[in-house]
Sequence to fold (136 residues):
Amino acid sequence: MYKISRQLHFSYGHRLLGHQGKCRFLHGHNGRVRITLSAEKLNHMGMLLDFGEIRSTLEQWIDEELDHRTLLHQEDPLIPILMEQGEPVVIFSCNPTAENIAKYIFDKGQQLGFPITEVRVWETPKCAASYGNKNH
Fold:
């Protein structure tokens, strides 16, 4: 199995509804993401995929749709207030935890047709969560 990975960074704000700790408050992260793709065969160029294709599609989507955005649960009462002020908000059907952000990016990668097998999201340099195929 061949694998390639691309890392990128994006900044985001969020809070977790129902959390008992400090994550219940609106706060931000300088996140790091590693996207891993896998395939059993290489293309005619001897590559799984050109890294530029990841940059020009999935990384561009992250930059446009998640970077410097506030990620909130659909039931968060801050949504109308922030939207009224023109703040960019991304609405999740669940709490926007690192785990759920990883799945969100994974699902988008699959929609774009990438042979994606794992997305790992670091909220901090020491704390990461991932989502991927169970065979990864």
The beta strands are 2-14, 27-39, 69-73, 89-92, 116-124, 127-132. The first helix runs from residue 51 to 65. The helical segments are 51-65, 78-84, 98-111. The chain has a mean pLDDT of 96.
